[in-house]
């Protein structure tokens, strides 16, 4: 889950201290102190809790909920297609290699294959514009059963459903506590147990919270410096909320793959509030990142920030994740 309080806390409490905590490892140490994990001698007590991971190739289904700008949709589509298509190093699929280092109790790694397998347009807001966490399951149920258009397949073997809500949809906790979350469907609602994730388009509601660092984090209480255009860096695909959403999408994909039933990989002892592999690296996009500093990333010819290459010459900026072998936050743009 992309937890805003966590990001706000990190930004707020460490903004003026990032010089003192400038290395990723120190950042982790600092983070860990905030969380105050009792009794753990390890810096991060990320543990495997014996449940399954997504080891079979993932068939990803997108559910566009509400009215979507086709340009925004193609940016997200290109990002998803970048998992399975070659692009110059460091690419989106290079980034995913860290995720494939996680295994289950049978020794199976998380898959390296994510295929965009279907899209559904819920442009009539089947569950209204006010959604709870549970509404996501009804949206999926509708998408796999409707007779108004071609329904999505109900793929309980290796399907993963992503519900993406448009700017005018209000979601419980969206913009107050979360930018996205992942969970699994209940047999009583959808008929089967399938992992899914929701991510909201933050454009009109809270880019300052969910589109960091492309929109200035207003909640930090720190004023943007003069000449900063109200952001920390420009968005590589032209829309702060979409570029920010892409990092939240990959955050949720990483976590749903490593903790699909909330009983596999997470830190902390509370499964109702697990700290998962992407939560551990919130706000870190490059070497030295943390505490309000994104880290060392690239700049495109317009000066926009990015750290990964994708299909069609696209560039994306996505956060790092916890690497279980290196035991630190990592991405393929790392300097070491
Ligand atoms: C599977 O995970 C193990 C343990 O992290 C790792 O050593 C190995 O390289 C991984 N294999 C692949 C194909 O990613």
Give the structure's gist in a few sentences:
The chain has helices at residues 4-14, 24-35, 70-81, 92-96, 135-145, 187-190, 207-210, 240-258, and strands at 2-3, 46-48, 58-65, 114-122, 130-131, 159-165, 170-171, 178-184, 195-200, 265-267, 298-299, 305-306, 308-309, 315-316, 321-323, 328-330. The protein has 336 residues and is an alpha/beta fold.
Describe this entry's structure for a reader.
With 336 residues, this protein is α/β, with parallel strands linked by helices. The chain has one domain. Helices cover 23% and strands 19% of the residues. The chain has eight helices and 16 strands. It has helices at residues 4-14, 24-35, 70-81, 92-96, 135-145, 187-190, 207-210, 240-258; strands at residues 2-3, 46-48, 58-65, 114-122, 130-131, 159-165, 170-171, 178-184, 195-200, 265-267, 298-299, 305-306, 308-309, 315-316, 321-323, 328-330. The strands form six sheets. It has a six-stranded mixed beta sheet with strand order 1-8-9-6-3-4, sandwiched between helices. A two-stranded antiparallel ribbon has the order 2-10. A two-stranded parallel ribbon has the order 5-7. A hairpin with a 4-residue loop joins strand 15 (321-323) and strand 16 (328-330). The structure holds 2-acetamido-2-deoxy-beta-D-glucopyranose (NAG). The site of 2-acetamido-2-deoxy-beta-D-glucopyranose has 6 residues, from loops. It is found in: Secreted, Extracellular space, Apoplast. It comes from Handroanthus impetiginosus. It holds the Pfam family Phi_1. Residues 1-24 form the signal peptide. This is Phosphate-induced protein 1.
């Amino acid at each position: 889950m992309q937890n805003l309080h966590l990001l706000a806390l990190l930004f707020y409490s460490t903004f003026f201290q990032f010089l003192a905590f400038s290395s990723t490892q120190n950042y982790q140490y600092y983070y860990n102190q905030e969380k105050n994990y009792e009794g753990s001698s390890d810096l991060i007590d990320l543990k495997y809790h014996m449940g399954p991971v997504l080891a079979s190739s993932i068939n990803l289904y997108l559910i566009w909920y509400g009215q979507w700008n086709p340009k925004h949709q193609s940016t997200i589509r290109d990002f998803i297609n970048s998992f399975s298509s070659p692009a110059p190093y460091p690419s989106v699929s290079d980034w995913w290699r860290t995720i494939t280092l996680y295994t289950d109790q049978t020794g199976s790694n998380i898959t390296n294959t994510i295929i965009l397998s279907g899209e559904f347009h819920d442009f009539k807001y089947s569950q209204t514009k006010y959604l709870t966490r549970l509404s996501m399951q009804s949206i999926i149920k509708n998408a796999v059963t409707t007779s108004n258009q071609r329904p999505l397949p109900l793929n309980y073997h290796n399907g993963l459903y992503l519900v993406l809500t448009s700017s005018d949809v209000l979601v419980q906790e969206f913009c107050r506590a979360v930018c996205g979350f992942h969970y699994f469907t209940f047999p009583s609602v959808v008929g089967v147990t399938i992992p899914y994730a929701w991510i909201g388009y933050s454009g009109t509601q809270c880019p300052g919270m969910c589109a960091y660092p492309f929109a200035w984090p207003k909640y930090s209480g720190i004023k943007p410096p003069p000449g900063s255009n109200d952001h920390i860096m420009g968005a590589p695909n032209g829309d702060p909320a979409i570029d920010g959403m892409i990092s939240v999408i990959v955050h949720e994909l990483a976590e749903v793959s490593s903790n699909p039933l909330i009983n596999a990989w997470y830190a902390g002892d509370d499964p109702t509030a697990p700290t998962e592999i992407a939560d551990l690296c919130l706000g870190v996009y490059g070497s030295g990142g943390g505490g309000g500093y994104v880290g060392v990333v690239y700049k495109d010819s317009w000066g926009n920030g990015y750290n990964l290459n994708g299909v069609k010459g696209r560039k994306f900026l996505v956060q790092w994740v916890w690497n279980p072998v290196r035991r630190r936050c990592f991405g393929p743009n790392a300097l070491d």
